[in-house]
Amino acid sequence: MDLLNERAKMFLTFHSLLFAAFAFGRTSSALATVIPLLGLGTSFLWLYLGYRTLLMYGYFRDTVIAYEKALPESERVFTAEEKFREVDHRPVLGIRVSAYFGYGLPLMLVAAWLALLV
Length: 118
Hints:
Blueprint: H1 2-25, H2 29-68, H3 77-88, H4 97-117
Helix pairs in contact: 1-2, 1-4, 2-4
């Protein structure tokens, strides 16, 4: 999940620079079109990378949980951590933070860039 968080930081920084460039260059019709298109493209890239990262995280999570089923209860560290996060301390609205970073933020930025493009 650290990889998803690092990517989110990079994309947020890049998009904040794009928003600043758009604000300063909106009088130029070329920049007012190119910058939102670039923002839209990178938002879709972020959405795709988030999907792939969460897909791989799900695969590894399921693999580790399947492996830990053969271990004694006291040695199931990952399963205990999953239970702590998903059952004992459920995420707000039942959505993991990683889903917000992987899907929510890119979709919000897609909407913002579309609004600026129109």
